[in-house]
Amino acid sequence: MAQIVDYELFKVPPRWLFLKIETSDGTVGWGEPILEGRAKTVRTAVEELMDGYLLGEESNRIEDHWQRMYRGGFYRGGPVLMSAIAGIDQALWDIKGKYAGEPVYDLLGGQTRHRVKVYKKVVTDELDELADLVTDAVDDGYGTVKLITAYQTSAIESTADLDAICEYLEVAREAAGREVDIAVDLHGHISAATAPRLFSRLEEYDPMFVEEPIRPEHLDTIDPSSQYAFPIAFGERLYSRWDFKPYLERGQLDIAQPDISHAGGITEIKNIATLAETYGAKLMMNYSVGPIAYAAGTQLSHHLSNAVQQPAVSERYIDAYIDNVNDLRSENGYVSLPDKPGLGIDVNEEGVRDHAGQTSDWMTPNRRHDDGSLVEW
């Protein structure tokens, strides 16, 4: 097996970081090691891992490389390190698949499904626009729509705040009808004290799931004994199987949502999925970034038996970076994988190089309550 001899990092629009790893016989693998708003920080972490651990090593020893990157520095975990590991891990699996002439899902043990259901994200604060966007998604064949509400509640939610969130779901439900699943992502905006009140009111709208209802620091306050009439989903701000373990043990998590570029990559998300299955939880990966990460996650969704859905691919810039981009697009609410080795994508390196360095130093937006205190994005 060939040795890892070189790597390059490309910061590209709109806010992504691509990694190219090359072996001694010229085989190339691609990954996406990015933490939104922290591209420079993660870039440095990737360089430290590649220069310190991987250059000169055999590319096929993925598990051993993962353990060295995770445990070899004594300090471990967290969003920066795990995002750096994730992108490297994706690229190593891409290389391994190309050597074997097989897609990653076959190397992992094969498919458990022929296609994966995808949901459409709908982001707006305007109720009139919301109805139109949901109707458009249904007309495009999506069987699930996820609402991402950026509604700015009070520091302690008032009755009017809860009324506004419920009206948001009511408008979406009326537009979609009963044949389409509606989910809602609350982005961690709701206070732990108010969450039970909101949950009891949301039951009327029969959401498929409620995602990240409260801040990640407070997720352990969710009361599993209340038996809410919908699943609770979260995990995009958890980074390893050890982060997920306590919530699964306490029965607080119904749908685990690790991010393919933040939770240690293909190797670790397979572990997270197995742990979730042990506790009866489903897996619905989060894709917060670009097409290389999306391809890696789609490989996993076709393999993991408890994976249920995934978001549709972001259309931003993908034509510039991926030659077989249509293989990532959904049709009638489902995505299927091409029979290509590795991650299943043909990266347009010329397009990547043409766009590299043209992106701004994007940072997560900060917003304020009416009293001037911070509210999360």
Concise structural overview:
With 377 residues, the protein is an alpha/beta fold.
Please provide a written account of the structure.
Residues 367-377 have a biased composition (Basic and acidic residues). Residues 353-377 are annotated as: Disordered. This protein has 377 residues and is an alpha/beta fold. It folds into two domains: 4-102, Enolase-like, domain 1, CATH 3.30.390; 106-346, TIM Barrel, CATH 3.20.20.120. It is 37% helix and 15% strand. The protein contains twelve helices and 14 strands. It has helices at 39-54, 62-71, 79-100, 104-108, 127-139, 159-176, 195-202, 241-249, 265-278, 291-303, 318-321, 349-355; strands at 4-12, 16-23, 28-31, 116-123, 144-148, 181-185, 210-211, 232-234, 255-256, 282-283, 309-311, 334-335, 367-368, 374-375. The strands form three sheets. Strands 4, 5, 6, 7, 8, 9, 10, 11 and 12 form a nine-stranded mixed sheet that branches. A hairpin with a 5-residue loop joins strand 13 (367-368) and strand 14. The protein is globular, with a radius of gyration of 21 Å. The termini are far apart.
